[in-house]
Amino acid sequence: MKIIKSRRRSEPIERQYKKRDNTLDFIAPFLIIFITFMAYPSIYSIIVSFTKYRAGKFSFAGLSNFRYIDRPHLQESNRKYFFHTDISGSDSNLSGSSTANFLNIRRIKALGLFRMFIFMPVLIFSCCSREIS
């Protein structure tokens, strides 16, 4: 029986190791920023929401911090907030995106300029309305 050798050589082990090492180099900055500015503050705020802070000391309070959720003025405020962020923001972004996509179909000179004039006011309005409410 004859053994047939492959013409292709496998990569050296050092090169394979470097390829795996590069992926961590690209992911590490994201992970550091995500953990520092997103994950840790989110988890810490959830933990703090169940505590009582008096004279520099934390003590466990349980659900007693959430006893004012059923107040009418808070419900009205939440309703307005969700209207402005979800419905109003989504509508304006959807209309701006669909108009920009429609402009892709037509062959128009200065297409980027038209997109900017149509989409930027929509984007600015939705960002400002979220900040105000």
From TrEMBL:
- Which locations, inside or outside the cell, does it occupy? Cell membrane
> Which species is this UniProt entry from?
Clostridium thermosuccinogenes
Keyword NAD among record annotations? no
Write down the membrane topology: Multi-pass membrane protein
Carries keyword Cell membrane? yes
Per UniProt, which keywords does this protein have? Answer: Cell membrane, Membrane, Transmembrane, Transmembrane helix, Transport
Q: Which InterPro entries match?
A: MetI-like_sf (IPR035906)
* Biological classification of the source: Bacteria, Bacillati, Bacillota, Clostridia, Eubacteriales
Instruction: Give the protein's recorded name.
Output: ABC transmembrane type-1 domain-containing protein
Which segments cross the bilayer? 26-47, 110-128
Annotated GO CC locations: plasma membrane
- Which SUPFAM superfamilies does the record associate with it? MetI-like
